[in-house]
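The record is kept unedited without comment:

——
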Amino acid sequence: MDYKRYIAERIPVEGVSANEICDLLAVPPDPSMGDYAFPCFRFAKILRKSPVAIAEELKAKIPADEVISEVSAVNGYLNFKVSKVGLAEGTLSRILKEGANYGSSDLGAGKTICLDYSSVNIAKPFHIGHLSTTVLGGALYRIFKYLGYNAVGINHLGDYGTQFGKLISAYRRWGNRELVEQGGIRALNELYVRFHREAEEDPALDDEARAYFKRIEEGDAECNELFEWFKRLTLKDVQKIYDLLDIHFDSYAGESFYSDKMQSVIDELREKGLLVESRGAQIVDLEAYGMPPCIILKSDGSSLYATRDMAAAIYRKKTYDFDKCLYVVAYQQNLHFRQFFKVLELMGKEWAKDLVHVAYGMVSLEEGAMSTRKGNVVFLEDVINKCIEKAYRIIDEKNPSLENKEKVAEQVGVGAVIFGALYNNKIKDITFSYDKVLNFEGETSVYVQYTCARAASVLSRAEVPASYEVPQPCDEEAELLKALAEFPDTVRSAAEKYEPSYIARYCVDVAQKFNKFYFDCKILQAEEGVRGFRLALTAATLQVLRNALSLLGIGVPEKM
C-alpha cells in the first residue's frame, strides 16, 4: 500500500488536491509523534484560521480505520499512526513479490528525458574533476529509466577547439606513434603539457596551433586523420573507467558534430533581429534580463560554446522530442546556461523551459587544485585503482579466507568512489578522502555493503518460509518497515529534485535501522511464530538495499 497516498486522500482541504497533500506529508523526526505528519501552516492565510485550529478540525473529520490506527493534532500538525501489522503485511509482500522492480514505476511512460553528462575532453585526462558529472549523470540516467522514462544518455565530447591544433603541433614536433599508441591518453597529455611549457618560451607555437586547427575545420586529410586517432585513443581509455563505474551512453555526439549545424542558428538569430555587433563580435544583448551579452561569434568569426550548445539543443529537440533535457555540469557554468537558455527562449523556442542545468559542486583531493596545462592532474583511473587496492588490503586483513577477494575489493573500491561523490547534496564542494570513503563504520557505501553481506549471511542459513505469521512489530521492526515502505517515494523525490543523494542517504538510514534490528532482535534463534517474519524482513531489507545501490551504480558482494 502507498500509505502517503492513502492518508492524503482522506485529508479534506478545500481546493487542494490529493497530490499536493501527498507532497506535504512527511515522516516526523520523533517516531512517538506518529508515522506521518501533515503541516497545516501554509493553509492558515487561505482558510483564515490558525494552523492549530485547522489541525483540530481536520482531525475530527478523519476516523481511524484498519489502516490508520490513530489521528492526533499537535501544534499545527496533523499526525497519523498506521496499523503496524498492516504496514508489515503490505510492505513485505510487495517487496518480496516485486523484487528488483520494487520502487520502479511507469511514471515516465511515453516521456523522453535527455541527459548530457560526463562530456570528457578528447586527448585530455579523465581526472577526478570529471567524477561528479559522470556518476551523478549515470545515477540520474538509471533513476529515470527505473521510473519508466525513455532516458537518452549523451556524452557531449569536448572535441572541438584550438587545443587540437596544439596537440597536432606537439605530436608532429615531439611525438612518436608507437609510444602514443601504447601510452594512450597519458602520452597525449604529456604532449599537451609540453606544448604549453614550450609556448611560454616561443609564442609563435600558438599561431602554429591555430593554423593546424583551421586545417581541421577546412577538412585537411592529414590533420583530421590525427584528430580521429586522438579521439579513438581517448575513448578506448575512458571506456575502461565507464565500465568500472557502470556508465552507459546512447550518443557520443560531441562539439564537432554540430560544426555544420551552427550556421542555421546564426541565420535565425539574425532574421529575428536578435544578433547585434559589439566590438566586431556578434552578440545577443541580455542586459534587460540582468545578464552580460551572450557572444555568438567572436570578432574573427569563430564560434563559442553558446553557439554550439544552442545548435545541440535544437538538434536534440528535433531528434528526440524530449520532455526535459538535463545538463549535468558544474555550477561555475551557471551563467553560460542561463544565457543560452534565455537566447533560445527569445528565439521563440517554447521548449526552452524544458532545459535544466543540474549544477553540482567541485571534487578535489586533499592535495589541492589541479591544472591540465601544467600537468598536475589526478587521473580518475588512479583514484579508483587506489581505492580498490586499499579495499583489498582491508578485506585481506579482516577476512583473509574470503573467496573472490579481488572481485569484492573492486565492488567495494568502486562503490566507495561513487558513493563518496553522491552522498552529499550535489551542489556542495567535496574534498575526496580515501580513508573516509572506505570507513566500515561511517556513512559510506562500505557500511551499506557490509550490512547487505550481514543480511545475506543470515539468509544463507535459513530460507524465508512460504507463509508466516505477522506479529505486532516491535519498535525496531516498525522503524525498519517504515523505511522500506518509503523507497518508492525516495526514488521519485530523487528524480524530481535531480538529487541522487536522497538515495545514498536512504541507503545509510536503512542500513542503520537494519543493524539496530539485527542486534536487538533475534532472527535465527527467534521463537517459531516470529522467526519467519524476521527472515522475511531481512530478505526485504537486502532486496531494497540492492535496488537502491544499483540505481547509484554500486554492486553488492554476497560476502565481505
About this structure: The mean pLDDT is 92. The longest strand covers residues 68-74. The chain has 22 helices and twelve strands. Residues 221-245 form the longest helix (25 residues).
